[in-house]
Amino acid sequence: MPHDHPDHFHHEGVSPSGHPYRDDNDGPLTYWQRMEIAVRELLIEKGQMTPVEIAAQIEAMDSRSPTNGAAVVARAWANPAFRVRLLENASEASREMGFDIGPLNLIAVQNTAQTHNLIVCTLCSCYPRNLLGLPPDWYKTREYRSRAVCEPRAVLREFGLDLPATTTVRVHDSTADMRYIVLPLRPAGSEGMTEAELAALVTRDSMIGTGLPRQP
Amino acid sequence: MAERVRVRAITPPGHVRAPWYLRGKTGMIERPLGEFHNPEQLAYGLPAAKKRLYRVRFSMAEIWGEAAENVTDTLDAEIYEHWLEPEDTHAP
């Protein structure tokens, strides 16, 4: 039964749907939450920005998604000249497609028949947000960040990707000002597909390197 | 900047962007990335001079020794020039 919880003898604090009630977010603010509110209110009071501008910026970030990156990858698969430009300067190539990526310094790393690339940020959670949107929660965990650099093959196996020893794994730690996107290998059997059809094969994880594109 | 470089094995306090697991490790410069304002000052809102940034490629064997999953696998990281020294510099 979908609503069968292991603790179904204890119905206190459980909603009529059978799920536990979620706490209201009226606990005390953390230091950094208070700091964010203080800075935001000061910026508004001093006329540096308006609440409308802040809301618009949040909305712009929320509207970014892996489909932006998928369009870039699909064009690189379909258009060899664009692929060259993407590998030379991924920021310019993304802007050329009309993506507003702000000051993002993007590097595209290309998978080949012999090489598989994996992206991580061990120091924090650097991610090409301005192109792909917010990172998945696991990308920010201490476990992924530490294990991706010392046992990438074991991590990839947990994602369902068991690479042969003959494939070279290249891990990229985003330690400073650059952000990374993996240009996965174009799947066999995708010949003749349109750019839009190709983009539908590109998953978020295939652009982080923890997965491969879908098979057509 | 030499082709083969070592990440300086120093432990300054503060907001540094050279990961601990690469300190004292030797790698090859994969490509220069240009100059960026030094994040070690930026993090504190201080005037930050521009520093050259490099992508350095390390072998997993260099980083993890015998514990490496596959010795030919590599790790690339961005390291600022003031964290790098030529390989032949005597390690501290």
UniProtKB/TrEMBL annotation, chain A:
Q: Which UniProt keywords apply?
A: Metal-binding
One family name in Pfam for this protein: NHase_alpha
Nitrile hydratase alpha/Thiocyanate hydrolase gamma domain location: 33-210
The answer to whether UniProt assigns keyword Metal-binding to this entry is yes
Which InterPro entries does the record associate with it?
CN_Hdrase_a/SCN_Hdrase_g_sf, CN_Hdrtase_a/SCN_Hdrlase_g
Positions of the UniProt region annotated as Disordered = 1-25
Alphabetically, the GO molecular function entries are: catalytic activity; transition metal ion binding
- Give the highest taxon in the source lineage: Bacteria
> Is Metal-binding tagged as a keyword?
yes
Q: Where is the composition biased (Basic and acidic residues)?
A: 1-13
Q: What is this protein called?
A: Nitrile hydratase
Instruction: Please give the organism.
Output: Roseovarius azorensis
UniProtKB/TrEMBL annotation, chain B:
Pfam families found in the cross-reference section: NHase_beta_C
What protein am I looking at?
A: Nitrile hydratase
Organism (species)? Roseovarius azorensis
Q: Which SUPFAM superfamilies match?
A: Electron transport accessory proteins
Domain Nitrile hydratase beta subunit residue range list: 3-86
Q: By its UniProt entry, which InterPro entries does this protein fall under? A: CN_hydtase_beta_dom_C, Elect_transpt_acc-like_dom_sf
- Upper lineage: Bacteria, Pseudomonadati, Pseudomonadota, Alphaproteobacteria, Rhodobacterales
